[in-house]
Specification:
Strand order of the largest sheet: 1-2
Shape: globular
Radius of gyration: 11 Å
Structural class: mainly alpha
Order of helices and strands: HHHEEH
């Protein structure tokens, strides 16, 4: 797992949008989506509820974000 992927997850959580996170990191939306899919697969849980707009974190995603906040500051 790369630090950039964790930063992307934090940006998605803040912006509640894959496209806004992609723009903020100068990436394509597809690249961001793939990175999040890989992160979720490696953790074995869904972090983002993609069925809602704007995006929301799942309960596991909120716990994960809270854990990252102290590490990435």
């Amino acid at each position: 797992m790369q630090l950039r992927t964790l930063e992307l997850f934090c940006t998605i959580a803040e912006q509640r949008s894959f496209s806004k996170a992609a723009a903020a990191h100068a990436l394509t939306q597809s690249a961001v989506s793939q990175a999040m899919q890989h992160l979720e697969e490696s953790l074995g849980v869904d972090l983002i509820d993609r069925s809602k707009r704007p995006l929301v974190l799942t309960p596991a995603g909120r716990v994960y974000l809270d854990g990252l906040k102290g590490c990435l500051l």
